[in-house]
Design a protein that fits this description.
The protein is of the alpha+beta class and 254 residues long. It folds into 2 domains: 166 residues, Hypothetical protein af1432 (Orthogonal Bundle); 80 residues, GMP Synthetase, Chain A, domain 3 (2-Layer Sandwich), CATH 3.30.300. Helices cover 59% and strands 9% of the residues. It has 12 helices and 4 strands, in the order αααααααααααββαββ. The protein has a 4-stranded mixed beta sheet. Strand 2, helix 12 and strand 3 form a beta-alpha-beta unit. The longest helix is centred in the N-terminal third of the chain and has 18 residues. The radius of gyration is 17 Å and the shape is globular.
Length: 254
């Protein structure tokens, strides 16, 4: 699965040397990989939470770039100091690093992630931007990381994209390991019910997210995770959310 996700990510990067080099840096840096591994030690092994390691980072990155691609530069690029490739770099870096703070602690992990990510983000942006633009790009990366849980309302569309992309990682594979480790609660049962998450162009709004599930318990993932992130990130105006439940009519949430 990881190779398929990697190919999808590269497909959204459009052959840009800057973006491809940044992606390679993120997925090969041993310190970043160590922090992602430690995040799963804390959350999966100790607390029996869902995956927050490398696979989750890759899926969130893929989801962010997919949402960005659906929305397009006309919606996303609202200021003249940056272009669409800058937005891609912002959401890619923020998505990949957003959960590394869990390596320290779950509480306030958004802010811990920013602290741990700063040397990596510094290293990336200094390769491609002059100092004035460098600090602007960094600020947007950190805002997206800070706002991914929906607790802090962002001012940029990129931050809303990252929060929404994070909430879309709810397919059943994410819950299988903690379920096997003995955590049996509504979070795990609901995640195991989710078969597929589709991100496509919307009918009434620019973006449509459809969650396919085998039974209604999967709606917990939509109501308690995805919608909280979307609303917390002030992203409702861009997205419509549906559930497709086996044997039932389609349900619209927003």
């Amino acid at each position: 699965m990881s190779q398929d996700i990697e190919r999808e990510i590269l497909g959204y990067l459009g052959g840009s040397r800057k973006l491809i080099e940044t992606f390679e840096y993120l997925k090969q840096n041993p310190r970043i990989l160590g922090l992602l591994d430690m995040s799963n030690v804390v959350l999966v092994q100790r607390l029996k939470y869902n995956d927050h390691g490398l696979t989750h980072a890759m899926i969130t990155t893929r989801n962010s770039l997919k949402i960005l691609d659906v929305l397009g530069p006309e919606i996303v690029v609202t200021e003249d100091w940056r272009d669409f490739d800058d937005s891609k770099l912002i959401v890619m870096v923020a998505s990949f690093l957003h959960d590394i703070g869990n390596a320290i602690h779950r509480e306030e992990h958004e802010l811990l992630s920013i602290t741990l990510a700063k040397p990596f983000v510094d290293d990336i942006v200094r390769r491609y931007y002059d100092p004035s633009k460098e600090v602007r790009i960094e600020s947007m990366i950190f805002e997206a990381m800070m706002c991914h849980m929906g607790r802090f309302q962002p001012t940029s569309i990129e931050a809303g994209i990252v929060a929404t992309a994070d909430g879309c990682d709810m397919e059943k594979e994410r819950a299988r390991l903690p379920f096997q480790l003995g955590r049996h609660d509504i979070h795990k049962f609901s995640a195991l019910a989710v078969e597929e998450v589709r991100i496509v162009r919307g009918r009434e709004k620019p973006l449509r997210i459809t969650v396919g599930m085998r039974d209604p318990s999967g709606t917990f993932q939509i109501e308690e995770i995805l919608l909280k992130k979307i609303r917390g990130a002030n992203f409702e105006r861009f997205v419509e959310v549906y559930a497709e439940i086996a044997g039932m009519e389609e349900i619209r949430f927003i």
